[in-house]
Design a protein that fits this description.
The complex is a heterotetramer, with 2 copies of chain A (423 residues) and 2 copies of chain B (159 residues). Chain A has 423 residues and is α/β, with parallel strands linked by helices. Chain A is built from 14 helices and 17 strands. In chain A, the strands form 5 sheets. Chain A has a 7-stranded mixed β-sheet, sandwiched between helices. Chain A has a 4-stranded antiparallel β-sheet with strand order 13-14-17-16, with helices on one face. In chain A, strand 7, helix 7 (196-206) and strand 8 (209-213) form a beta-alpha-beta unit. Chain A is globular and about 70 Å long. With 159 residues, chain B is α+β, with helices and mostly antiparallel strands. Chain B has a single domain, classed as Alpha-Beta Complex (Sufe protein. Chain: A), CATH 3.90.1010. Chain B has helices at residues 3-7, 10-18, 74-87, 92-106, 116-119, 132-157; strands at 37-44, 49-57, 64-71. In chain B, strands 1-2-3 form a 3-stranded antiparallel β-sheet, with helices on one face. In chain B, strand 1 and strand 2 form a beta hairpin. The longest helix of chain B is centred in the last third of the chain and has 26 residues, at 132-157. Chain B is globular. Chain B starts with a helix and ends with a helix. Classes of the chains: A alpha/beta (423), B alpha+beta (159). Chains in contact: A-B, A-C, A-D, B-C, C-D. The complex binds pyridoxal-5'-phosphate (2 copies). One pyridoxal-5'-phosphate (PLP) sits between chains A (94-96, 136, 138-139, 184, 188, 213, 215-216, 236, 238, 247, 379) and C (266, 289-290). Chains B, D: InterPro entries: NIF_FeS_clus_asmbl_NifU_N.
Chain lengths: 423, 159, 423, 159
C-alpha cells in the first residue's frame, strides 16, 4: 500500500498535475485514456536526444552503440516488467498496431505468405474468430476485418447486465472451429477484470490462439504474460506513464518467429533481391524501419518508476480508489453506473450516465470545476449499445490519483443536475 | 458570466428541452411529401451522437420545411431546434447565407460578434465557439440540413 | 545561403553536437540515417508533456482541447511545409509505415474491401508494379509483398553505372499494365536526385499511381507535393530534425478518402456494430488508436525551425557541402565513390568503398577519430549488388554540418589504408 | 594501447589477410567427403557480410576439418581464420568448450580476461568485446561452425 504521504510525493513527480484548470486545482481523472508522465520519463527522452540519439542496430559508431544499448535496455526492462522474454517483445506505435500486427500476420499467412512455418496461422471459411462485446474497437475491428479477408466467421461473447462477460455460452461460442479468441484483460469502460484463466483454458481446449488486450491491466496491476499463458498480448506506453508513440506486442517466442511479418522495409530482412526476400527472426522481423527509439527509452524509465513503486502497491492503492469512487458515484442521486460493484473484480475506472443530462454536458460542467473526465463511447460502441446508452462519462484513476481528486470530482458531480435544471 | 454560463445560456437549455422540429420522419418512401425532398444522417464519431434531418422545398414558394430526429448533448439538440425554427422562414439561398454566418461564428473562438439580425436565436451559440470540442455538436444539424438540401435540389434537377 | 557564422550558430542549437567522442570533437556525418534534434524540438516535447498532455480528438476537457490544438497545429504546419493540404497528411510512426499503408490499402482493395470507391485501387494477375533498383528496402519490399498478395508482376527500373536511373527502357517497363510506379526522390546511398517530373508523366500516361519516397528530399531541399503532382509520398520526422516515432503519408485528398484503411481500431470509425463498420474520411481513417501526439508537436517545431532557416538556404548550404565532400573523397587514393559527380543532381550524401579495407573497418577507424558515418548496405541491398559491393561507407550531411566536420572526416579517411596496412 | 589498437591487434590483421581455411567448398554433392558432413551459411544483416562454413568429422578420430568461404570485415575474416586453425586440433566436444569460452569473452564488454591456453589466437579478440557492434562480426563464423557441426552429427545419427 502507498501511504497518503507517498501518494502526494508521487503526485509531485508529475509536472502537469500541479497546474490550475479553469481557476481550479486540476483533478485529472482521464488516465484510462492516457496517463500523465513523471519527470524521470521526460528527462530520459531529453537525455537521449541530447547525448545519445542515433540510428540503432545499424551503425558501428559510438553514438549508434550508445543508442542501441539504451534501446535494447528499454526492451529488456519492459519484458521483465510484463513477465516476458526479451525477444518476445515487439515494438509498435501503440496497442492498436500491436493487435493489427497479429491480425494481419494471420491474414498474410492465410494468403499463403510465410511458408510452411506459417501454416498453423491459416484461417478461412469454416473457421471462426471470437471476441467479446466489451472490447475496445482496437480489439474488435481488426478481427472483423480479418474475418472479411479470410472468409472466417466472426463471433462474440456477450455481456451480462452486471458488467461481466456472460460465459454460460462459452463452450458453444468458442468451439472447434475457433482459431482466435481475443479478449480484454480489463474493460476500459466497465473496469471489469476478466477471468483470463478460464478463457485461456477454453482457447487451449479448442486449439485457438489466445490474444489478450492488456492496455488497462499493465498500468494498474502486476501482469505476467508467461503466468497468464496467453499467446499474444498488446499494451501501450502512453497509458503506463510512458511517452506517446510507443506500444508493444507480446508473443510467445515460437509463435513470433513463425508469424509472417506485416510492415516490411529496412532492418527486418537478412537478404533481399529484386525477386526474393528472407526475414529476420522476431522481434526484428516485425520492426521495419526506424523505430520509436527515444520513446522506448522513455518507456524503460516509466517501467523503472513503476517497478520502484511496486505494482502490488500500485494495485492496492488503485483498488482503494476504486471502492471510493464506486461508493461515491452510487451515492449521487440520478446517476446510473455501469460495471461491477465488487472491489477486487474491477479497476478504478467508473462509467455512468446522469439522468437527463448528456455525457458531453456532464463532462463540460466537470471541466469547469477542474475535473478532467472522458465522455463518449470510449471506443466501445457495441458495449454502449448493449446497455442502451449512447455515451457515458468515465472517471479513471492511476497511481498518482488521490482521494482529493475523487472528492473534487464527486462534489462537482453532485451539482450537475441542478446546473442543467433537471433536479 | 463565466464561459460555462455563456455556453449554456438559458435560451440554449430551453431549446434543448423544447426540440423544435423534432417530429416523426417522413422517410424515403413517405407519402404526400414534396418532390423536392432530401434526408441526411450525420454522426459525431467521438460520442456517437446522431441526427437525421429531412427537408422539403415547397415547389411554389421555395420555402423550406424541416423535421429531424436524433439524440445528443444539449448543444446539438438546441442547435437542431434553433435551426428548425430559423429554416421555416427561409428559402435555400437564404439558408446558405445564414449557415455561412453560423459557421463563421462557430470558428471564431469567441472573437466575432454574432449578427443577431441574421442569426436570431442561433446568436446565442456565440459562447460555444470558445469550446472547440463542442463546435462539432453545434454544427451537426447544420451539416445535415446542408446535405439534405443538396439532395432535395438534385431531386428537383432530375425531374 | 547560410554564412559560416549562421551555421555555427545553428550547430549550437543542437546539444548533442557539442560532445566529445573518443577524445575527439564529434563530426556527425550520419544524418542520412537519422538527424540530430535542435533544442526547440526537445523543448516542444517537454512542454507538451509538462503542460498539455492528454488524449486528442476524444475529450471535452480543457487539457484535451489544448492537446488537440497542438496536435492539429503540427499537422497544419507540416502540411504547409511539404505543399499539401492539411487533410492530406496522415501520421504514421515512420516513412516505412507510410509506404506500407499504401501497399496494404491496395491489397485490401484488391481483396474486395472498401466498396465501390476502392475499385480503382484493385490489382491482380496481369497488372504490374514498378519500383527502381536504387530503392531503400522500405520502398521495395512492401511492393514485392503486394505483388505476392495480388498476383501482380513486380518489375524495376535499373541503375546506370553513373548512379542515375537508366530510363531508356522506361516506356517498356512502365506500360499499360502498370498500376503503381514507386520511386525515391533522392537515393539514400548515391545521393542522386531523380527526375520526378519525367517519372510522374509516364505514370500519368499509363494511369499508374505515382508513389514517392521523399525521406531524403524533405529534410534537405524545398519540396512541394502538389507541384510534384505525385499521388502518394512518404517521409520521416527523425530525418528532418524531428523526434523519432513520427512519419507521414501524403496522399491526394480524393485518393486518401477512397483507399481502404489498414490499421483499424479506435478513433477512425463513425459507427461499428458487431457485424458492420463505417470508416471516417482521411486523415482519421488511417489513424487508428492513440497517435504519437508529443512527436507530432515536436515535428511541428522542427518544421518551424527549418522554415525559419529557409529550405532554399538549407539546400544551398548542403549543395556546397556536397561539392566539397565529393571532391574531397575523390582526392583520397584508393577510394572508389559511387553516385553522380555533378552538383545540383545530388545531395550531400557520399558513399564509397576503400580498396582493401572493409566498410566496417573504415567506419570503426573513423569513429575512433570522432567521425560518425554509416557502414553497410544502408538498407539498399539490390543497389549494392548492382555495383558489386557488399557494403559501403557513407558520409551524409544535414543543415548543421560544417566544413570542419567534412575536413575532420576527410583527414581521417586519408589515413585509413595506412592503418590497415594496405598502402 | 588505444581501444582501436586493441581491436585491431596485429595478429587479427594478419589472420584477416591470411584467411586460414578459406578454401574451395566441397558442397552438398561433394565427392570423397566424410559422411559426417555439415554446411552452414550465415549472414550479418546489418552489412550483408556472409560466410559459408563446412565441417567434416573424421569418422575414426572424431577430429574436425573445416573449410569456409565468405566476405566480410577484418574481424569476421580473422575470426574465421583463427577458428579454422583452432578447430583442426579439436573434436566436437572440445570445440563446444572453446566456443562457449569465446562466446563468454565476446559478451564480457572487456571485463573478462581471455584464457589463452584454451583460446589460442582467439584470445586476441578480447578487444572486440568493447565494441558491441562488432561482436556479431567475430561470432559469425563460430555460429556457422556450431550450426554445421550440428548437421554433421545429425548426418551421423541418420546413418
Ligand atoms: C530513402 C529512404 N527511404 C525510406 C527510409 C525509411 O525511413 P524510416 O526508417 O524512417 O521508416 C529511409 C531511411 O532509413 C530512406 O533513406
Ligand atoms: C482496453 C483498450 N484497448 C485498446 C486501447 C487502444 O490503445 P492505443 O490507443 O494506445 O492503441 C485502449 C485505449 O485506448 C484500451 O483502453
Amino acid at each position: 500500500m502507498l501511504t497518503d504521504a507517498e501518494v502526494s510525493r508521487i503526485r509531485n513527480d508529475f509536472p502537469i498535475l500541479g497546474q490550475e484548470v479553469n481557476g481550479h486545482r486540476l483533478a485529472y481523472l482521464d488516465s484510462g485514456a492516457t496517463s500523465q508522465k513523471p519527470q524521470c520519463v521526460i528527462d530520459a527522452e531529453v537525455d537521449f536526444y541530447s547525448a545519445r540519439n542515433s540510428a540503432v542496430h545499424r551503425g558501428a559508431h559510438s553514438l549508434a552503440v550508445a543508442a542501441t544499448d539504451a534501446y535494447e535496455a528499454g526492451r529488456a526492462d519492459t519484458a521483465r516488467f510484463v513477465g516476458a522474454a526479451t525477444n518476445e517483445i515487439v515494438w509498435t506505435k501503440n496497442a492498436t498496431e500491436a493487435l493489427n500486427v497479429v491480425a494481419y500476420g494471420l491474414a498474410n499467412a492465410s494468403a499463403g505468405l510465410g511458408g510452411a512455418e506459417a501454416e498453423r496461422f491459416r484461417l478461412g471459411p469454416g473457421d471462426s474468430i471470437v471476441a467479446t462485446q466489451m472490447e475496445h474497437h482496437a480489439n474488435l475491428i481488426p478481427w472483423q476485418q480479418l474475418a472479411r479477408l479470410t472468409g472466417a466467421e466472426f463471433r462474440y461473447l456477450p455481456l451480462a447486465d452486471d458488467g461481466r462477460l456472460e460465459l454460460d455460452g462459452l463452450e458453444s461460442i468458442v468451439d472447434s472451429s475457433t482459431k482466435v479468441l481475443a479478449f480484454t484483460h480489463v474493460s476500459n469502460v466497465l473496469g471489469t477484470i476478466n477471468p483470463v484463466a478460464r478463457l485461456v483454458a477454453r482457447a487451449r481446449q479448442v486449439g485457438a490462439l489466445a490474444v489478450l488486450d492488456a492496455c488497462q491491466s499493465v498500468p494498474h496491476m502486476p501482469v505476467d504474460f508467461h503466468a497468464l499463458d496467453v499467446d499474444f498480448a498488446a499494451f501501450s506506453g502512453h497509458k503506463m506513464l510512458g511517452p506517446t508513440g510507443i506500444g508493444a506486442l507480446y508473443g510467445r517466442a515460437e509463435l513470433l518467429d513463425a508469424l509472417p511479418p506485416v510492415l516490411t522495409g529496412g532492418s527486418m530482412i537478412t537478404t533481399v533481391d529484386m525477386d526474393s526476400v528472407e526475414f529476420m527472426p522476431a522481434p526484428q522481423r516485425f520492426e521495419a524501419g526506424t523505430q520509436p527509439v527515444a520513446q522506448v527509452v522513455g518507456l524503460g524509465s516509466a517501467v523503472g518508476y513503476l517497478t520502484e513503486l511496486g505494482m502490488d502497491n500500485v494495485a492496492a492503492h488503485e483498488a482503494e480508489l476504486a471502492e471510493y469512487l464506486v461508493a461515491g458515484v452510487d451515492r449521487v442521486p440520478g446517476v446510473r453506473r455501469i460495471g461491477p460493484d465488487a472491489a477486487g473484480e474491477r479497476i478504478a475506472s467508473v462509467a455512468f450516465e446522469v439522468e437527463g443530462v448528456h455525457a458531453h454536458d456532464v463532462g463540460q460542467y466537470l471541466d469547469a470545476q477542474g475535473v478532467a473526465v472522458r465522455v463518449g463511447h470510449h471506443c466501445a460502441q457495441p458495449l454502449h449499445r448493449r446497455y442502451r446508452i449512447a455515451a457515458t462519462t468515465r472517471a479513471s484513476a492511476a497511481v498518482y490519483t488521490t482521494q482529493e481528486d475523487c472528492d473534487q470530482f464527486l462534489g462537482a458531480l453532485a451539482d450537475v443536475r441542478k446546473f442543467f435544471g433537471v433536479s | 458570466m463565466s464561459d460555462l454560463e455563456q455556453l449554456y445560456q438559458q435560451i440554449i437549455l430551453d431549446h434543448a428541452k423544447e426540440r423544435y422540429g423534432n417530429k416523426p420522419l417522413i422517410g424515403d418512401t413517405g407519402q404526400g411529401r414534396s418532390p423536392l425532398f432530401g434526408s441526411s444522417h450525420q454522426v459525431n464519431p467521438t460520442c456517437g451522437d446522431e441526427i437525421t434531418m429531412e427537408v422539403e422545398i415547397d415547389p411554389d414558394t421555395g420555402r423550406l420545411a424541416v423535421r429531424w430526429d436524433g439524440q445528443g448533448c444539449s448543444i446539438s439538440m438546441a442547435s437542431a431546434s434553433v435551426l428548425s425554427e430559423l429554416a421555416e422562414d427561409l428559402d435555400a439561398a437564404e439558408f446558405e447565407e445564414v449557415r455561412e454566418a453560423f459557421h463563421e461564428l462557430m470558428h471564431s473562438r469567441g472573437k466575432v460578434e454574432a449578427d443577431e439580425e441574421l442569426l436570431g436565436d442561433a446568436a446565442a451559440f456565440q459562447g460555444v465557439s470558445k469550446f472547440p470540442a463542442r463546435i462539432k455538436c453545434a454544427l451537426l444539424s447544420w451539416m445535415a440540413l446542408k446535405d439534405s438540401l443538396a439532395q432535395a435540389r438534385t431531386a428537383g434537377g432530375s425531374q
